[in-house]
Every structure is written in structure tokens, then in C-alpha cells.
Amino acid sequence: MSSVQAWTLVFVALSFGLYIYIAYASRVSTTSGFYVAGGGIPAPANGAAIAADWMSAASFISMAGIIALSTNGYGGSVYLMGWTGGYVLLAMLLAPYLRKFGKFTVPDFVGDRYSESARLIAVVCAIVVSFVYVAGQMSGVGVVFQRFLGVNETLGVIIGMAIVFLYAVFGGMKGITWTQVAQYSVLIVAYLIPAVAISQHLTGIPVPQIGFGQIMGDLNALQAEFGLDPYTGAFANMNMLNMLLMTATLMFGTAGLPHVIVRFYTARSVRAARFSALWALFFISLLYTTAPAIGAFSKFNILQQIPGTAIGSEPGWFKSWQEVGLITVDDLNGNGVIDVAGGIGKGFELAINNDIVVLATPEIAGLPAPIIGLVAAGGLAAALSTASGLLLVISSSVANDVYYKRINPQATEARQLMVGRITMGFAILVAGYLGINPPGFVAQVVALAFGLGAASFFPILFLGIFWKKTTAMGAAAGMAAGLATTLSYQIWTLPIYGGSDGILGISATSFGFVGMLINFIVTISVSQVTPAPSERMQQLVEEVRYPGRSELVVAHADGPLDDGDLELDNR
Amino acid sequence: MDATRRQEYWRRNLRLMSVLLVVWALVSFGAGIVFVEPLNTVSFMGVPLGFWFAQQGSILTFLALIAIYVWRMDKLDAEFGITEYEEEVHGS
């Protein structure tokens, strides 16, 4: 066992032990504890949990690589702006009001505000989006285990499943929340240490956000030398229209993703929900302002070290990633030297998988073995924290919205909990299967999930709060229209299906915003011609807009509205 | 709160939100994308300004916007005498 493997094992074992201990200490016995941690999480902890929930294996492992390798640098800004800008929308437009509404799941809000059929559509959307996402997390776990511990990928996924099972099934949302706080700590430390060390090493400035300006001139020069677009140049990979639409899609999609929204139900109060959004973006921005710096540093190191290297004499880190097939070299011109001229990517002599940039960064920069082990533990923390949040959405949607609300409203608390736990266990099995045998479309569908989130959930959540006259029929028609147009456009333009150029060259990942506008238009139009929601519902929506205590919301939270509540309205 | 006070509270909440969302759109879609090329002619901390906004500046601005929002909403709540908040999720 190499020293890297030994250190990785130490950090992985320590962090897994911590997660299980926390879950044991915060095990639950009530549905409100299981679904929303009893709604009593303080804002800073809730913010850290949102950050860990939100920052998946894609943010931790892939994002810096996507920015540096699959775009010219500037093009990757859509992810940076899109995935953080959504929090502004969440904080101001959704979080406080949904918290005041005080339910367990997103379909809960949709079902109570609109209708039971809208609830079922919402359940299906939530489950599909969550499963697609969770498959990506599980295969991320497999990659980390395989590369750093030499464990077979399948066994890696099974270990990951067992850990999630232990802390999610028994601890429910409460266990998940506190585990995620620990996972956030592990992942951010693991991300920042190598970034600071590399920044110090390359620029003499230990703050990567400042250091990255120091190498930008040289990086642009290197890019030019190898015939690549300038790193900072605008609109090299994507035109302005697609940049705008994709950024907007990721922003509104973020605000529509069920596993993020549910986190605002766990906040202690309306005020804590607002503060949770602030803490969440603070914790997220630590990673999101560092990622572009890591991307630029790695690209700089790669362009300096690799081009012109004779095949067989590459640096050690290069060989170890080549062995697991994440770097491939194809000596097209047969001169025995790796030429980068013409670019990095498929069809060129050198192809580097986006996913290795963060994991390989410490090795590329020659950092010591313990740091490499720590980064591996950080990658696992990012993947497992997001996986557990998603699994909870799946299990609460099934146990609360389908089983309790639709099938057996007489179910006791204990029975609901049991159904929740069984669903969770079953979902973990499916997630593990998808992680071991990832369907080919998973990578694409993850990016598309945001389009679907934006096109289906965001408009009806927003209008449900801000426009009292939104009707159930309007919301159902809007959701159906947004979802159907977005899904068909995506299928039509995706390379693996239709591969068409689409309308105005709008890409599959950018269309969600258009679908959202369609949803808005349909919802508003249909609401105009259908009978307005009941007086009581309009009063409830009004009530949700003010953060203080109110009997109506309390009464509503205790059960479905019935005529008895009218008296409260007239108080 | 009576109906007029409520309307006043909601109106001020919407006004605060609109101002902040205009800034949100201006830094991201504006400085980061639409006006990126003219801004790139200016250098800031070693990188072209438009590029800086797209990769760092917009995120820092978003953070500031939420901070201003929670701070102003706290003041608004205090002004309207809202001191009690729902503490728990009620079982359903």
C-alpha cells in the first residue's frame, strides 16, 4: 500500500466514523424529525447543511475541470453565476414563505396550495430529478474509491451505500442535517488546503481568489501558443444568447430543486430561513470563488508540464490517471511526443477527463500524501451528503405525499416512519444499482435536471405565493406545458437522441428558461379563465406573506383546511 | 396587523426585493455577459473586468444582496412589531 493509499484510508475511516457517530447521536422517532429535523435547525448549521446538500460530486470533483478544460475558461462562468445566483431567488422569493407554510415536502406545498393531481405530478418530478442526480453521486463515490484506494468500483459504491444507509435510514433528516454539517467541514477544508498551497506555490499569494489574477497573463499566452482560445476571452465556446439562457436556467433551476427547497422547512423559523439562505451562499461561495482559481492553476500547470513531453516520460500523476483511463493519449502524428497544439479534448492527442482536475490537483502541484488523502475524503463527503439529501426527498415524497396523503391517511406516526425508512432503503438500493451501472444518459440528464426544475417547479411555487389568483387548473396546465416543451426540446436537441440544432441554436441545457416562460404564460392564462381559488385559500396565501405567528397557518399545518377554519379567518 | 398595515408591509417588502433583483440581474446578465466585452478592456486584479465579474464579482455581489435583504427584513419586521416567529413545524 502506497503512502497516498494509507493516508486516504485514514481520512476516509475517520470521516465515516464521524458521520455514523453523529447519526447515532441524533436518531429520530417522529415523522417531523424524520422529514424536516423537527424544523429546529439553527440558521448557520442549516446553511452548512444546504451547502453540503447542494454541492455535489459535480461541484467538488468536476466543476473546476469543466471550467478549465471543456470551455476556454470564460464559458464555465455560466455554472459559477447560475449555481450561486439561484440563491438570491431562493432567499427572496421562496424560502421565507415556504417556511411559513410549514410542511414537509415540495409536493406538500403544491398539493395543499393547488390540488391533489398537482401533488402527484410534483411527486413524479421530484422523484425523477432526485434519482437522476443520485446516480451521479454514487458513481462519483465509485471513482474516488477506485482511484485512491485501489478498491473495485462496485465495492466502492457498496461501501458508500452502506454508510448512507446507516446514517440516513436511522437518523432521517435530523441525522442527515448534522452529518451534512460535518461533511461540509470536511469538503471545504479538503478543497481549500490544496488551493491555498498551489496559489502560494505558483504566485506567492496564499489567497487563490487573488492569486489567480497573477497567472492569467501567462495562461492566456500559453493558450495562444497552443492554438487555444484566450482563457478570459468572451463567447469562444458559447454565444451570448446561450450564455444568457443557460445562466438563467441554472439560476431558476436551483430555486426549483426539491432537495434544496426542503432544507428551508428544516429552519427554526421564517427569520432563520432567510438567514439560512445567507449562510448557505456564504459557505457555497467559499468553494465557488475558489473553483475558477483551481481550474486556471491546473490548466496552467498542465500546459506547462505536458506538451512536448515524450510518451513514456510523463510525470507520475499523469501515469496514475492514465492507468484508470481518465487521461488518454493518442499519438496521432506518431512522433512519440504529446502535442497539445489544436486543443485538449476528443480527437486530439491528449484527452483529460474533467473529473480529475480537483482530485489530481495536489499531485500535479507535488503536494504531500496526507493532502491527497484529505481531498479523497472531501470528494466522498460531497457525494454522500448530496446523495443523502436526495434520498430523503425520494423517501418523504413517497411516504408522506403518496402513502400518507393518498393511500392511508389513518396511518400512525410509527407506521409512516416505517414506510419512510423502507422507501429510503429501497431508494438506496436503486441508487447503488444506477451508480454501478450508470445509464449512458446520466451525465447529460444531470445538467438537464435544472432545466426541468426551472420549467416545472419554479413558476408554480413563485406564483403560488405572489399571485393569489393562481388556480389549481392553471398550475397543472402550466407545469404540464413547461415540462412537456422542455423535455421534448431536450430530447430533440440532445446528441444521443435527435441531435438537431434546435431553434436559434439554443442548446438543450439552455432551454429550461424558455420552458419556464411558457409555464408562466400558460399558468397565468388558464388562471384567468378558471374560477378563482377559494376565499379561504386566498386568505391563507396572504397569511403566508407575513412572518409573525398566525392561527390560520397553524390550523392549516395541523391538517387540511376545512370549514371550521373559516371562523379563524373572520377573527 | 390590520389590513392597511399588511399592505404597507407587503409593498415595502416587494420594493426592497425589486431593487435587489435589479442589481442581481445587472451584475450577472449585465456585467458578466451582455457587457463583458467592453468591460474586458479594463483590467482588475490582473484579470479583465468582465471576466472577473463573471467568475468572482457576481458571486460576491449575490452574497451582499442576500445580506442586505436579511438585514432590511429584520428592520422591517421590527418596525411592524413582528417579534414572534413560528418555532416548529406542526405535525400533519
What does this structure look like?
The complex is a heterodimer of chains A (571) and B (92). By secondary structure, chain A is mostly helical. Chain A has a domain at 3-27 and 38-300 and 366-439: Sodium/glucose cotransporter, CATH 1.20.1730. Chain A has helices spanning 3-25, 31-36, 43-54, 57-70, 77-101, 106-113, 116-149, 153-203, 208-225, 240-254, 258-265, 270-288, 291-305, 316-323, 356-364, 369-407, 413-436, 442-466, 472-493, 512-529, 535-544, 551-558, 566-569; strands at 327-329, 350-352. In chain A, strands 1-2 form a two-stranded antiparallel sheet. Chain B is mainly alpha-helical and 92 residues long. The mean pLDDT of chain B is 87. Chains A and B meet through helix 2, helix 5, helix 9, helix 10 and helix 12 of A and helix 1, helix 2, strand 2 and helix 3 of B.
Task: Give a brief rundown of this model.
The complex is a heterodimer of chains A (571) and B (92). Chain A has 571 residues and is mostly helical. Chain A has helices at residues 3-25, 31-36, 43-54, 57-70, 77-101, 106-113, 116-149, 153-203, 208-225, 240-254, 258-265, 270-288, 291-305, 316-323, 356-364, 369-407, 413-436, 442-466, 472-493, 512-529, 535-544, 551-558, 566-569; strands spanning 327-329, 350-352.
Please describe the topology of this protein.
The complex is a heterodimer of chains A (571) and B (92).
Chain A: H1 3-25, H2 31-36, H3 43-54, H4 57-70, H5 77-101, H6 106-113, H7 116-149, H8 153-203, H9 208-225, H10 240-254, H11 258-265, H12 270-288, H13 291-305, H14 316-323, E1 327-329, E2 350-352, H15 356-364, H16 369-407, H17 413-436, H18 442-466, H19 472-493, H20 512-529, H21 535-544, H22 551-558, H23 566-569
Helix pairs in contact in A: 1-8, 1-16, 3-8, 3-11, 3-12, 3-16, 4-13, 4-15, 4-16, 5-10, 5-12, 6-7, 7-8, 7-16, 7-17, 7-18, 8-9, 8-16, 8-17, 9-13, 10-18, 10-20, 11-16, 13-15, 14-15, 15-16, 16-17, 18-19, 18-20, 19-20
Chain B: H1 3-34, H2 36-40, E1 43-44, E2 47-48, H3 49-79
Antiparallel strand pairs in B: 1-2
